[in-house]
Design brief:
six-stranded mixed β-sheet, globular, 16 helices, 461 residues, alpha/beta, 16% strand
């Protein structure tokens, strides 16, 4: 199912540029420390010139794509999701001949979901990685700290951060195919309206990525005329949330809007059910809840039947049929059992935002390398926009193989992958539109509705 009406007018929050400048200065001053990086491929060695895949790379030498994301800590499910996408995309690219004779390989860089760990890990990545052509991942947990470093190394990155600061501060090597968190907060409130809930509790983790949802959600609830019953922050290192669960139950909400990754949300759900006479309170989750590991943990905590009967999440609309989806699903499913850390129902990765949009980002970057005849980010980067947004007379293509054939024939192309067409703004943001997802009892993702632009505008703060 794909919605064709795009969100009108991006809402942007003001940001004190001085704050970002301070983050940039402190991040660039950080010294390389012990590494949290581990290779999922074979391309580790001396750093590429300029840090971004130099045009002087020898033909045939492998190009590395680094997955900079949590592989440990409360958000540890994010890294393997992105790595599965990397394995899928690169397997298809390599099968189609690679990029001008280069094969692509994937490497994991564990940020542990903490800026203090992420900065030395990224510095070590640049110090130890040959032919680094692209970075993917960079979640809201660490993006504010590592994006300035990656940008200073002139390395293209496709990030999964929802932080709204990236709406208004330009980093030339930064690209994003997902919306800022405030728009996802609006989507959650729109789901609550559609389901006729009027009393909403908030329960978000104390990590950076989850905290960014709270203020937009509060503003949107107020504008929508819905009642906020309680706002609970969950310590992701805790093993029980009985106090928070009791407060939520006693506030008598119709539903709980939440993002608390790792074991936090499943533990909270279990304790709420115990304190609420054995009954679940309906849950509205963010797109991060569309994950095999999240479903497995939540279903184990409260029972698959109870969880699936009381769960909805926002997610970005993606293709579920047609040539782009066929190429994507074939590429990703070919890596089942091969991608490290990928557990649970592997088909869920076909709906996970990181699975879809990083696959598209990798294809866009690889095609831009072909188009520009360079693996240097400073050279191929501008062609990402040309290939994604298209140009007059461009031929639409839906996979790396088909697009590469057109490029080699001298044709102008527009890549349309499973995440749909792009429309990059001056900050290299191209956000999609939202759908409503649920789970079946087996963990398969079901699309049960769409959210119109009008619905989101009606609740936007």
């Amino acid at each position: 199912m794909k919605l064709t009406t795009h969100l009108g007018g991006r809402r942007r929050r003001a940001l004190a540029v001085t704050a970002v400048t301070a983050v940039t200065a402190s991040a660039l001053a950080a010294l390389a420390g012990c590494s949290a990086a581990s290779s999922a491929g074979s391309a580790a060695g001396s750093p590429a010139a300029g840090g971004g895949g130099s045009a002087s790379q020898a033909t045939g030498s492998p190009l590395t794509i680094a997955d900079v994301a949590p592989f440990s800590g409360p958000d540890a499910a994010l890294g393997p999701t992105y790595l599965a996408s990397c394995y899928g995309a690169t397997s298809a690219i390599n099968a189609a001949g690679g990029v001008d004779g280069h094969q692509l390989t994937c490497k994991s860089v564990d940020t542990r979901g903490d800026p203090a760990d992420a900065v030395p890990a990224v510095n070590q990545m640049f110090a130890s990685t040959s032919n680094l052509a692209l970075v993917i991942g960079c979640t809201s947990d660490e993006a504010a700290s590592v994006v300035p470093i990656i940008n200073a190394h002139k390395t293209t990155m496709f990030c999964m951060t929802g932080q709204s600061e990236f709406d208004s501060v330009h980093y030339p090597y930064f690209y994003r195919l997902v919306p800022p968190d405030l728009e996802e907060s609006y989507a959650m409130v729109a789901i609550a309206q559609q389901l006729h809930y009027t009393r909403i509790a908030l329960a978000f983790g104390n990590d950076i990525g989850s905290q960014t949802f709270i203020q937009p959600a509060i503003s949107a609830l107020k504008k929508a005329g819905l009642t906020l019953t309680t706002d609970q922050t969950l310590d992701l290192t805790a093993t029980t949330f009985r106090t928070e669960a009791e407060t939520i139950v006693q506030s008598h909400p119709d539903a709980i809007m939440t993002e608390a990754l790792g074991s936090a949300d499943p533990t909270l759900f279990s304790e709420i059910k115990q304190l609420n006479g054995g009954k679940m309170i309906p849950i509205i989750g963010t797109s991060a809840a569309i994950s095999p590991s999240f479903f497995k943990a939540a279903a184990a905590a409260v029972g698959a039947a109870d969880f699936t009967a009381n769960f909805h999440a926002d997610n970005l609309v993606t293709e579920t049929s047609g040539p782009a989806y066929q190429a994507f699903s074939a590429a990703l499913l070919s890596q089942q059992g091969k991608a490290p850390g990928a557990t649970g129902d592997f088909t869920t990765y076909l709906s996970a935002p990181g699975g879809v949009h990083l696959y598209d980002g990798i294809n866009l970057a690889a095609l831009a390398m072909l188009m520009s005849k360079s693996t240097s980010s400073s050279v191929y980067g501008p062609d990402i926009l040309t290939i994604g947004d298209g140009s007059p007379g461009a031929t639409v293509c839906a996979s790396f193989a088909s697009c590469a054939s057109l490029l080699k024939a001298g044709k102008a192309i527009q890549y349309e992958g499973p995440g749909g067409v792009t429309s990059f703004d001056s900050f290299h943001d191209s956000t999609g539109i939202f759908q409503i997802d649920t789970y079946s009892a087996s963990g398969a993702v079901n699309v049960v509705g769409n959210l119109s632009a009008a619905q989101l505008r009606a609740v936007s703060g």
